[in-house]
Design goal:
Two copies of one chain form a homodimer. Helices cover 46% and strands 19% of the residues of chain A. With 143 residues, the first copy, chain A, is of the alpha+beta class. Chain A has two domains: 82 residues, Arc Repressor Mutant, subunit A; 59 residues, Dna Ligase, domain 1, CATH 3.30.1490. A three-stranded mixed sheet of chain A has the order 4-3-5. In chain A, a hairpin with a 5-residue loop joins strand 3 and strand 4. Chain A is globular. The first copy, chain A, binds a DNA duplex (25 and 25 nucleotides) through helix 4.
DNA sequence: CTGCGTGCAAAGTATTTGCAAACCG
DNA sequence: CGGTTTGCAAATACTTTGCACGCAG
């Protein structure tokens, strides 16, 4: 995964900090808070400010390289998602792993909104929470 | 709409403040922030604290009498929704009006999650944003 | 070079909490 | 009367901003 290349493609300077943030999310394979990313960044850099982490996460999310989790606690969480197509996510509430879903009922929604409300859809969000196979397997073990 | 009765059914004391908050949301017909509810409360009560508004909104939402909007700005917004069945909402990003949707692809989602991830769904969120018929009509006028 | 990126310090601000007093049932 | 509910003040904590310096292209 050539993050350097990805950044250049988006006309973002490939700074060490930026690359590291991408790398951390890429290898985490779970969603992380800005603070958690910061903690990992501090292991790689002597000086690294929390605002830099916030700014980069927001920037990268804005360009679609990483995605945000919609979380009930209303805090920010990000994860790496290489899928460029429109899609939604399954979030494991136990281990925080995020998986792509291919199902999207956009057509049907648009149809209902148009028919019953005569309104226009501009966007929609959807997210599925649950327990992934790994986590439910671990739970079995514990018993 | 007998809010007094609703509260008693849920074993919540029907205090004037609580009833007023419900009443405000009920008549607003759009989603409101705690602060906006507070502003309206101050017109009805000489003393009314913002924490009281926060606490009641959260309490009422917890019991399902009112609902929360999932908002990109990650702030709290509530609206009155009498529908007790599981359903989702269409939110007009122009006037903040919220409409019920009946479409829900829960079955299909569960099927995909189970088949492709072998995971278990515990909950899901979904919300549709757009422009309601009133707002798009008004825009036409302006042109 | 030159403008984007970063560090640091500081501000902002929605949301919560603690506790004593008031109040509903 | 007894457990809720409320007001007020204060705290929390996440997130953002300003500005001067540094670095990638």
């Amino acid at each position: 995964m050539d993050h350097n290349h990805i950044l250049k493609e988006l006309k973002l300077k490939a700074t060490p900090k930026r690359l590291a943030i991408l790398d951390i999310l890429y290898h985490a394979s779970i969603y992380l808070s800005p603070d958690e990313v910061w903690t990992q960044m501090k292991e790689r850099f002597r000086t690294i400010g929390l605002p830099t982490v916030y700014r980069n996460l927001e920037e990268l999310a804005g360009r679609g390289i990483i995605s945000k989790v919609i979380h009930p606690d209303r805090k920010l969480y990000y994860f790496f998602c290489g899928n460029r197509e429109h899609h939604h996510h399954f979030v494991c509430t136990s281990c925080r792993k995020v998986n792509d879903l291919s199902f999207c009922a956009f057509e049907e929604i648009q149809k209902e909104v148009s028919r019953t409300l005569n309104a226009t859809v501009s966007s929609h969000i959807m997210q599925v929470f649950g327990i992934c196979s790994n986590c439910s397997a671990n739970k079995e073990e514990e018993q």
